[in-house]
């Protein structure tokens, strides 16, 4: 066959040398080059054919397909747009454009094109399947479930359709319907190992890990050579922090399928859980090697690097994950958090905006995004997000807590207190509501009321790091410096990765005689792990001011340069 294409190209070369104004000769030679994988050469021929016949939609369509083969989906879409203007009822052409839109993360545009294509050609099962994928990616799980089920009715052997359906079912609000679907399938076909696997995936995604493991066990008993079943069971075991058995399952999955990238990811996560970071990185490198287009492999490797505070390298992995799957909101969320850590606030906001464009219907993800924005001081963005969250779910105490945090930090302390009290009414066991109510009371200088709320929070959750963190602030306000240090120590005992503690503990230590060395060590570590955090330089500047250290203004200046408004005010006050 290759010889035939090469011979055809030679014939077209000869024909074009004699008559170089025939667009069809360039078109046919381009097709032959495409079949040989010479896509760039094909595009050059399509360019020449279009010069000779600029109103032929077929030429733009085929050039678009060739560009898509080179992963130039934006270029492909530009060609498909021209072709569609000339040939608006070409279902296949519109389907191609839908796929390219999905490949650049324009899922809503893709859905619109898939619907248009299906209205012209309703029996295109691939269009139904890929539309379902696009719907899942924008959080429209009910629509995705319906289309995955339609795909199965049209072609029950479509690769991965049950797997993707399981994911969509797990994320849909209809928990009973999700559990019933594969339950009914299993009743009809009780010896089908794959059905137990997918039923397990639904339960695992719903965080019903023990039930999921039981389903994976059944799948393995029916098909002991299923790499996916072992890998999925290993993942579920990680939910119980059963890292040793998770690693054993991952090993079996790899032995059964050495190209199962997800199995290497599971093994890497298990090793990380066993505190073997070197081994974890080795496995995640292997996951990338065997699955170079698996965005999840890059994302999890980025998470490992972030956990080691290696944000620069982590960002490289997150960039790659975004490149490979530009429509998946969680990839942007991971990168957003790393950008916050490196002080790239403009980049973090850009990622936040992209998340809002892609997937504003997935409540659990959007909650975490808003919480991270609050934590980074992007209060206006968080406030807007939680306005919408509360509208969609007015009975969520957690939404009111985060909404209150955003209000409190935009100067609306009384409104914030109302939100925290609403959260407590909705959930009297919300220790986070008590934490933040105490914080608001501190803002209003009510240390007595704050200490009462913090005592209630700690009663509800003894290992609540935030309560000790806020109580340390209360002790600082009351000039109880040793008690503040003790509470900061408690925070680190509970949550060693809480890097916000070091600069604040250092500030408290600056008031305690004979703690200067410890103070300097804490400030130095805080700068090391987050070199662009303005709070660290601001607190160090304040400490130096009361210690009469002449370098105080340099730290206040650095903090001001990193965006601290309080540092800017103190510079004017103390550093004229």
Question: How would you characterize the overall build of this protein?
Answer:
The mean pLDDT is about 95. Helix content is about 80%, strand content about 0%. The protein contains 34 helices and no strands. It has about 575 residues and is mainly alpha-helical. Helix 1 runs antiparallel to helix 2, helix 2 (about 25-35) runs antiparallel to helix 3 and helix 33 (about 550-560) runs antiparallel to helix 34.
List keywords for this structure.
576 residues; mainly alpha; 34 helices; 0% strand
- Rg measurement, Å: 29 Å
Helical fraction equals: over 70%
Distance between the termini: 81 Å
What structural class do you assign from the helix and strand content?
mainly alpha
Mean pLDDT: 93
Instruction: Quickly count the helices.
Output: 34
Count of individual beta strands: 0
- What share of the residues does DSSP label as strand, in percent? under 5%
The global form is: globular
Largest sheet report: none
Given as residue ranges, the uncertain stretches (5+ residues, pLDDT < 50) are none
Helices and strands, with pairings:
Layout: H1 2-18, H2 23-35, H3 39-52, H4 57-69, H5 73-86, H6 91-103, H7 107-120, H8 125-137, H9 141-154, H10 161-171, H11 175-188, H12 193-205, H13 209-222, H14 227-238, H15 243-256, H16 261-273, H17 277-290, H18 295-307, H19 311-324, H20 329-341, H21 345-358, H22 363-375, H23 379-392, H24 397-408, H25 413-426, H26 431-443, H27 447-460, H28 465-477, H29 481-494, H30 501-509, H31 516-529, H32 534-546, H33 552-561, H34 565-574
């Amino acid at each position: 066959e290759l010889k035939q294409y090469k011979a055809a190209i030679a014939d077209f070369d000869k024909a074009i040398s004699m008559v170089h104004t025939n667009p069809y000769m360039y078109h046919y030679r381009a097709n032959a080059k495409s079949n040989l994988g010479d896509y760039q050469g094909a595009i050059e021929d399509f360019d020449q054919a279009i010069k000779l016949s600029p109103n032929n939609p077929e030429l733009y369509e085929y050039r678009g397909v060739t560009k898509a083969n080179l992963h130039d989906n934006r270029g492909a879409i530009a060609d498909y747009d021209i072709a569609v203007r000339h040939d608006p009822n070409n279902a296949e052409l519109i389907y191609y454009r839908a796929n390219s839109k999905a490949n650049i993360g324009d899922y809503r545009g893709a859905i619109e094109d898939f619907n248009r294509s299906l209205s012209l050609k309703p029996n295109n099962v691939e269009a139904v399947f890929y539309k379902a994928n696009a719907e899942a990616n924008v959080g429209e799980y009910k629509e995705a479930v319906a289309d995955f089920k339609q795909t199965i009715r049209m072609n029950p052997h479509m690769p991965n359709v049950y797997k993707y359906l399981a994911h969509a079912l797990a994320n849909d609000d209809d928990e009973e319907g999700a559990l019933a679907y594969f339950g009914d399938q299993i009743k009809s076909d009780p010896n089908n190992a794959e059905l137990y696997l997918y039923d397990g995936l639904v339960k695992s995604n719903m965080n019903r890990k023990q039930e999921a493991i039981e389903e994976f066990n059944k799948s393995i008993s029916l098909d002991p050579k299923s790499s996916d079943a072992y890998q999925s069971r290993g993942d579920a075991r990680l939910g119980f922090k059963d890292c040793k058995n998770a690693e054993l399952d991952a090993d079996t999955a790899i032995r059964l399928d050495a190209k199962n990238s997800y199995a290497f990811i599971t093994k890497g996560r298990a090793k990380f859980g066993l505190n073997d970071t070197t081994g974890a990185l080795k496995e995640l490198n292997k996951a990338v090697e065997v699955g170079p287009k698996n965005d999840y492999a890059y994302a999890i490797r980025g998470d490992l690097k972030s956990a080691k505070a290696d944000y620069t390298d982590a960002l490289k992995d997150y960039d790659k994950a975004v490149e490979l799957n530009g429509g998946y909101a969680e990839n942007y969320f991971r990168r957003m958090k790393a950008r916050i850590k490196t002080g790239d606030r403009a980049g973090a906001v850009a990622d936040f905006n992209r998340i809002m464009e892609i997937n504003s219907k997935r409540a659990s993800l959007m909650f975490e995004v808003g919480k991270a924005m609050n934590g980074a001081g992007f209060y206006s963005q968080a406030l807007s997000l939680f306005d919408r969250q509360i509208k969609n779910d007015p009975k969520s105490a957690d939404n009111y807590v985060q909404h209150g945090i955003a209000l409190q930090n935009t100067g609306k302390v009384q409104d914030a207190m109302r939100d925290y009290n609403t959260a407590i009414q909705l959930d009297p066991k919300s220790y986070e509501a008590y934490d933040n109510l105490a914080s608001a009371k501190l803002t209003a200088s009510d240390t007595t009321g704050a200490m009462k709320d913090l005592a209630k929070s700690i009663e509800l959750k003894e290992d609540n790091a935030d309560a000790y963190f806020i109580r340390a602030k209360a002790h600082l306000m009351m000039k109880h410096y040793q008690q503040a240090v003790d509470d900061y120590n408690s925070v680190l005992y509970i949550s060693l990765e809480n890097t916000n503690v070091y600069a604040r503990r250092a500030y408290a230590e600056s008031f305690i005689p004979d703690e200067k060395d410890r103070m300097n060590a804490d400030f130095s570590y805080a700068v090391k792990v987050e070199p662009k955090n303005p709070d660290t330089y601001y607190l160090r500047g304040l400490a130096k001011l009361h210690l009469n250290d002449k370098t105080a203004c340099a730290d206040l200046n650095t903090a001001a340069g990193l965006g601290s408004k309080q540092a800017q005010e103190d510079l004017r006050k103390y550093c004229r």
